[in-house]
Amino acid sequence: MNEATNTGNRTTLRSTSGFWILGVTALLMVFFIIDAVGRGAWNFAVQALPWELLVVWLVYLVLVRPCIVIEPSQLTIVNVGRLHDIPWSRMEEATSRYQLTVLLRDGRKITSWGAPSAGLDRPSMIGGRAGRRGVDHQDRAAGVRRPGRAGNEGPTAVDLIDRAHERWGRIDPKDDRLATSRWDVVALGVTAALVLWGVASALLG
């Protein structure tokens, strides 16, 4: 299952299957804590707490946090530990098979860990609209149905990126921004803090 969250001109896309795994993991960790407290093992419960929180956090970090964010100014890819900001003018095309991959005009490829995928390898209209329209025409003539068409499963991530590029992707000669990649300081900081808490708890216990 896929989730699309719209806030004004900002759309966030991610797979929803991670939420189920996160929920089950959190419930298991709560059960273990309650069980330890019920048995009177308060010291064990306190020592285990940071590690159990770390497990829940890592599940969130790997399965829930990764997503793609579509905005008027750029496409943002949120991966585990890395954030990629891609202005529309720097994008060549996007494809989706099992993961969404963005090809930049400088030849670089950036893969999204959390974007919903269609299971089909097909380019977006960003890199070559004429070729895409020709393929679409052939598909209709042959009776081939693609995900994202009316009457099927709804728009894919690539479809939504195409639409955003049609709306906001006109190259602005004054927009000289480059595609940038940076570390996710918040995610890495929380992970480090939980690890240090767990180590300190074990040493002091």
UniProtKB/TrEMBL annotation:
Record's keyword terms, sorted: Membrane, Transmembrane, Transmembrane helix
Segments passing through the bilayer: 19-38, 44-64, 185-204
Annotated region described as Disordered, given as residue ranges: 130-157
UniProt entry tagged with the keyword Transmembrane: yes
Biased composition (Basic and acidic residues): 133-142
UniProt protein name: PH domain-containing protein
Native source species: Plantibacter cousiniae (nom. nud.)
